[in-house]
UniProtKB/TrEMBL annotation:
PANTHER family: CELL DIVISION PROTEIN SEPF (PTHR35798:SF1)
One Pfam short name: SepF
Presence of the UniProt keyword rRNA-binding in the record: no
Descriptive protein name: Cell division protein SepF
Membrane-spanning residues: none
Signal peptide: none
Length: 133
């Protein structure tokens, strides 16, 4: 009897087993059985995450969009309706708000970008030149 069982009793200890699944590999020369850890299941979790697409018409709407970014929504901004100077200012303001929330700004095109909150992964297939199958 081990020292732990004598001190605490056998019922008080939980036995931990390394859950491994035996994998037989047909190798004529070796006869080795390999072990691999059992795949952990990914639990699907529902979130209150929202995706919002907006097209700002003027700089007066910037504060409204900053509040949307602060609420940690995924927001796509299409700044085609703004002139070059206003578009740059809007981009600077919204990128700053996104960065302040530990998020990131992902560019889809020259005048379309996405504000992505912390913890959300984005694969930009357009930028990477990949095709969706």
């Amino acid at each position: 009897m081990s020292i732990w069982k004598s001190l605490f009793g056998s019922d008080d200890l939980e036995e931990y087993e390394n859950e491994q699944e035996a994998v037989d590999i047909q190798n004529e020369n070796s006869g080795i059985t390999l072990f691999k850890k059992e795949n952990k299941k990914v639990k699907k979790e529902e979130t209150n995450m929202k995706f919002i697409a907006v097209k700002p018409r003027n700089m007066n709407e910037a504060s409204k969009f900053v509040n949307i970014v602060r609420n940690k929504f995924i927001v796509t901004f299409n700044i085609e309706a703004l002139n070059r100077e206003e578009g740059q200012r809007m981009l600077d303001i919204l990128s700053g708000a996104t960065h302040a929330m530990s998020g990131k700004t992902v560019f889809v095109s020259e005048k379309v970008f996405i504000s992505v909150p912390e913890g959300v992964e984005v694969d930009n297939l357009i930028e990477n030149g990949e095709e969706i199958e």
